[in-house]
Structure formats: structure tokens, C-alpha cells
Amino acid sequence: MRGSGVLAIALRQLYLMRGSPARVLPLFAWVAIDIVLWGFITRYLNSVSHAQLDFVSALLGAVLLWDFFSRVMQGVSTTFLEDVWSRNFLNLFATPLRVSEYVAGLVVSSIATSLVGLAVMLVLASAVFGLSFFSYGLVLIPFLLVLFLFGIALGITASAVVLRLGPASEWFVWPVPALISPFAGVFYPVATLPPWMQAIAYLLPPSYVFEGMRAILAGRPFSSASLLIGAALALLYILLAYAFFASVHRRAVRTGLIARYSAETVS
Amino acid sequence: MESDRAGAALAVDRLCKTYGATVAVDDVSFRVAPSEIVGLLGPNGAGKTTTINMILGVLEPTSGAVRIEGIDVARRRSQALARTNFAAVHAPLPGNLTVQQNLRFFGLLYRVKQLSQRIEDLLAEFDLVRFRDVKCGVLSSGEQTRVGLAKAMLNRPHLLLLDEPTASLDPAVARDTRAVIQGIARAGTAVLWTSHNMVEVTEVCDRVLFLSHGRILLEGDPKKLPAEYGKQTLEELFITVAREPLALELA
Q1: Nearest residue to B13 (alpha-carbon basis) of B59, B77, B73
Q2: For residue A54, what pLDDT is reported?
Q3: A96 and B86: CB-CB below 8 Å?
Q4: Do A96 and B111 touch (CB under 8 A)?
Q5: Contact yes or no for B207/B221 (Cβ under 8 A)
Q6: Bigger pLDDT: B232 or A100?
Q7: What is the pLDDT of residues A184-223, one digit of tens each?
Q8: Contact A110/A79 with Cβ under 8 angstroms?
Q9: Residue B95 to chain A, least CA–CA distance (Å)
């Protein structure tokens, strides 16, 4: 893999961001709205509830981590969609760029954009609503890492689906986090779910993160082994997602789809 | 044969592309030597763009091989494409990037050394300096074509593929563009050129290949070929190929 191809994809995204407020605003606007909304909800719940649970740490922390995961996924797929929207596949894949470099470029772009969202959320949640990330300790770093890896895997998968099914399937990208959230135990323990949903939950890396987060906040022992399982699953999904993308790309080259990719040519 | 492959900038051997029962390209073989400008001609649907897409590695041949300076595109795609570039009227550069941003983006993809200097040279050569910070999407079609050509020159390609490069240019700019491309060819670049402008093809190309229904029907010097088939001009010959390919093949 060569760095210049990866740099090109990331630099292109920077150029697009720099010249377009419509692209910059979503980096922090929606996460800020989420934090403000859930911040007030948790503040209200703390004032009326007699439970020992601190809703700010439990719910607002969960919202923040989930929004970070969603931003990572959308960072990958939005960078990919820029090539869909500008019908750039022929120009792009007629260069020496390798598929691995292209996908790495999507990931680097997503790191940059999702970190902006994370920074805004951290500042808002701690400054306005008093969320203390010190309560999670250093384990917050592996939590974020597992969510990041899974977000990357889903972003690559969603991009492959759009490449396979055409621009009209763009709708598939946006609701994916919402589809997964009931299974991931973002706001409630996985044990709350019926057995068949639990079985799915344990295949999803975020469920290990949110179970761990709740354990720490409740003062229960935290299982680093289960977080390792989450991390291993996330890495496995990245490998599978890349293999899927590469396979869809190979098919697109075989059928000529890459050279004539548009809503009119993909059905 | 092997030395021929190594000597040719482009060697296309028995190239076929089928889509189910439809044959888009049928057993096409040809060479393009360094400094040679070869015209790939034929009516719409003859297989020109399909052939170019296979040379560019964005379409997998059903059978056959493409070699660029002896490098097999199917096996060593990245190395082969590093020596190639293209400009096509149907593949404009991203309109949401400025001229300079597009050149930097593609310069990185083609791994161009001393990229900033190369961009400055090309902006000057293609009279694009005043459009440096203008988004490509708002340029006129002629200006976009010039940006596309500047992009095609970024990596000083050994093989240049041009799909109707002067289609949207006014006569003066088209003449300048032809002169630039002829100059590039004189410097050693092999050029494969598709066009529907037969006057231009006669003026620019050293050799032409007529494609019809995915097959090469005729090949030769565009200045001599019409007379060989009893026609006055290349355009007349083109029309005959387009309307009566079978009769011509039998002849």
C-alpha cells in the first residue's frame, strides 16, 4: 500500500469540507443536538428519580459513545458517496490506486471527521451537563477503539452495498446505526432482551462496550476479557467488510459497472 | 513476438468482451508504438469505449490481454496504469473541486513527483492559470476539456488514451489542443485517439483502426486508406463502414 493514494482520498475530503459549510455543519450539528437533548432529559430524570443511578453518566455517556460510533460509520460512507455523487469512479479507478488504498483513504477521512464530532460532544457533555469521563477511567480508550473499529466495518460494508446496488441504495447507509441500536444494549442491559435478541447482541461489538460501561458505573467488576471479545469481533468484521468490498469491486470491474456507474445504469 | 510486446507502448492481443450473448469486442489485436498516434474509429456501439475501458483496467476482458510497455494490465494493474493516463469527454473531473484541487488529487493518485511544480507547468501550458481556484463544475465544456487534458498529462504518460478530446472545443482551441497532443507524441508518448471528426483524424493520426460490431475491419494510413477502398475521403469510408460493414469485409 502506498501513502499517496490514501493521502489523496483524505485530502480530497478536506478540500470538499473546506469549501462547503453544508458538509462541515453535520460533523457537529447533529451530535450537539443529541447531547443537548439527552443532557436535559438526563438532568430531568436525575431530579425526579430516587434511584441510585446517575443518569448523566449512564444515558448521556451512552448517547455520546453511540453518536461517536455512528459518526465513524457515516464518515466512511460519506467519503465513498462523494465519488458516487460526482460520478468519479472511472477517473478514480483508472489510476494506479489500489482498492486497499482507497478503503484506507475512506478510513483516514473518517478518523478526521469523527474526531471533530467527538471533541464537540466531549466539550458540550462535560461543560454543560457535568459528564465526567474520569468516571470511566482509562478504559474509555478501548471503548472508543472498539466502537471505532466496528463503525469502520459497517461503513465499508454500507459502501460496498451502494457500489453493488447503485446510488439509489444510499438510503441503506443512514438508518444502519438505528437498526443495530436495539440489539446493542446502548441504554439497557443485554439481559433485558429476549434470548434471540441477546444472541444477536453478543455478535455485536458495541454490546460489550455498553455492558462494560454500565458495570463500571455500577461499581461492579469489569470484564476486560469480554471487551477483548468485542475488539476481536470488530477486527473480524473489518476483515470481512474489506473482503466484501473487494469482491463487489471485482464484480463491478468484470461487469463494467465501474466505468458507467450511475443511477441509470445500476438496477 | 515477445520483443514486439516489449517494444510497443500498447499491445492488445485477441481482446474479447461479451455480455451474455452480446459480443461487444471480438478478437481485437493491435499495437501502438511510442510516438505513434493511432485513431480508433467506428460508429456508436462499435466497441471503442469498451476497448478503452479494458485498456484502462476498469473493465475485465472476457479473454485476451492488454500490455502497457510489456506490463500485463490484468496482473500488474497498478504498475501498468502508472504509465498511462486518459481524458474522456464522458468522464469529467469532479465538479465540486477547483482546477488546482483536482490536479493535486489526481497527481497524488498518479504518484507524481514534484507535484506543485508540475501543476504550475500544466496550468500555464493549458491556459488555466486564471481558473486555478474555480470549481470545475462551473467551467465551460471547453475549459473542462482543457482541465481534463491537463490531468491526463500529470504523470507524463507513456500511453495516452483520448476519447473525443476535442469534441466540445471551438475550432481555434481544438487546433491548439491537437498541436499540444502532437507535440506530446513527438516527445515519445503513444496516443490512442477516438474521434468522430474525420478531418481531424486525417490530420493528426499516423494510423487508424476501424471498428464495427466489436471487430477491426480496416487498418491503415488515414491519408491513403480512402483511396484503397475507392473513396474520396475518410469520412466517406467511415460512413461505408458504419452502414455496410459486411460488404466492406467481403471486399
Answers
A1: B73
A2: 76
A3: no
A4: yes
A5: yes
A6: A100
A7: 999 999 999 999 999 999 999 999 999 998 888 888 887 8
A8: yes
A9: 7
Q: Does residue A71 register a pLDDT over 80?
A: yes
Best of A23, A85, A91 to disrupt the B interface (most B CBs within 10 Å) is: A91
B-facing residues of A in 181-210 (CB < 8 A) are: none
Check CB contact under 8 Å for B81 and A8.
no
Give the model's pLDDT for residue B238. Answer: 85
Interface probe for A, chosen from B83, B102, B108 (most Cβ of A below 10 Å), is: B108
Note whether A155 and A244 are within 8 A (CB). Answer: no
Residue A87 has pLDDT above 50, yes or no: yes
Q: At what angle do helices A21-48 and A99-129 cross, to 10 degrees?
A: 40
Q: What's the predicted TM-score (pTM) here?
A: 0.90
Whether B58 and A90 lie within 8 Å, measured CB to CB: yes
Mean pLDDT, rounded, for A222-231: 90
pLDDT at A267 exceeding the cut of 70:
no
Q: Which of B15, B53, B58 should one mutate to test binding to chain A, selecting the residue with the greatest count of A CBs within 10 A?
A: B58
Q: Are B49 and B24 in contact (CB under 8 A)?
A: no
Chain A's closest residue to B133, CA to CA, is: A19
Using CA atoms, how far apart are residues B58 and A167, in angstroms rounded to an integer? 19
Rg of the Cα atoms in chain B: 18
**CATH 3.40.50.300 matches B2-83+158-250:** yes
Domain borders along chain B are 2-83+158-250, 92-156
Which of A200 and A168 is assigned the larger pLDDT? A200
Q: Is the Cβ pair A19, B96 closer than 8 Å?
A: yes
| Residue A20, min C-alpha distance to chain B (Å) | 9
- Put simply, the answer to whether A16 touches B106 (Cβ < 8 Å) is no
B174: closest CA of chain A, how far (Å): 23
Residue A8 has a pLDDT of 96
Which residues of chain B fall below pLDDT 50?
1-5
The answer, yes or no, to whether residue A265 has pLDDT greater than 60, is no
Q: Do A259 and B58 touch (CB under 8 A)?
A: yes
Residues 6+ apart with CB under 8 A from B127: B146
Whether A7 and B56 lie within 8 Å, measured CB to CB: no
Q: What is the mean pLDDT of residues A44-54?
A: 79
Q: What is the pLDDT of residue A27?
A: 85
Torsions phi, psi for B24 (to 5 deg): -90, -40
- Tell me how far apart the alpha carbons of residues B28 and B36 are, in angstroms, rounded to a whole number: 19
Give which of B4, B61, B60, B76 is closest to B27, Cα–Cα: B61
In this model, does residue A30 exceed pLDDT 50? yes
In A, minimum Cα distance to B95 occurs at A86
Q: Give residue A32's identity as a one-letter amino acid code.
A: A
